[in-house]
Amino acid sequence: MAPIIIGIAGGTGAGKSWLADYLARYLRGSTTRLQEDWYYRDRSGLSEEEILRVNFDHPSAIDAPGLIKDVDSLRAGRTILAPQYDYATHSRTQATVAVESAPVILLEGLFVLHRPALRRRIGIRVFVDVPADIRLIRRIRRDTEIRRIPVEETLRLWENFVRPMHEHFIAPSARHAHHVWRPEQDPAFPRRLATQVRQRLAAR
Fold first, then answer.
1. What are 40-82's pLDDT values in tens digits?
2. Per residue in 88-102, is it b (16+ CB within 10 Å) or e — as a string?
3. Interval 144-195: pLDDT, tens
4. Backbone dihedral region of 63: left (phi > 0), alpha (psi from -120 to 50 degrees) or beta?
């Protein structure tokens, strides 16, 4: 029986990974994770000046065919070797991560509800809707603490790319969601969703 794919979309810093972490804990032993961020196209051949002009918040920054191919492999029960991306050097690393198929595939990323070809493969679509000011604060923390990106660069990216691309591509994709989750208004949603998925697994 084909896995249940849960697609978790939303803007940068919305809490997509937090929700995926919660579901993975609740459905322990039944999930595998796939992150759209792993599929950024390699930009290691560009100069520093060229890198500054690259829009990493446009859907074209993602290797969508590669992502869809790997999703299909997981759906077929096969293990994949997922790529890894270094945000400091804007390059694909030599390392890969072995991702095994599982009854539930947690797929998270900015654009997972934007592409029709990917949406057709997703059984449960969730959009995490969080105000822009909260998302910006979280983005700054993540960039400085994890991705080694200076605050000034995060703010430049936010103003020139992140905010306009969110409004143009990401926010509109919420209309394709089965669930639009606003954490401050509905803190119980993650547990309801996890219970729903567990019931579907038990009914198989």
1. 999 988 998 998 899 999 999 999 999 999 999 999 999 999 9
2. eebbbeeeeeebebb
3. 998 888 999 999 999 999 999 999 999 999 999 999 999 999 999 999 999 9
4. beta
- Please give the single-letter amino acid code of residue 44: S
* Rg of the chain on CA atoms, in Å: 17
d(CA 119, CA 33): 17
Cα distance between residue 151 and residue 83, in whole Å: 27
CA distances from 141 to 138, 147, 159 (A): 5, 9, 17
Q: Model pTM?
A: 0.94
Q: Where are the alpha helices (DSSP H) in 42-188?
A: 48-53, 64-75, 116-119, 132-145, 151-157, 163-165
| Model confidence pLDDT, tens digit, residues 71-115 | 999 999 999 999 999 887 888 999 999 999 999 999 999 999 999
SS3 assignment, position 179: strand
Left if phi > 0, otherwise alpha if psi is -120 to 50, otherwise beta: which for 122? beta
Residue numbers of the domain that contains 189: 4-202
Q: Tally the domains of the chain.
A: 1
DSSP 29-58: TSEEEEEGGGGBPP-TTS-HHHHHH--TTS
For the chain, first and last CA: distance in Å?
A: 8
Identify the CATH number of the domain in which residue 29 sits: 3.40.50.300
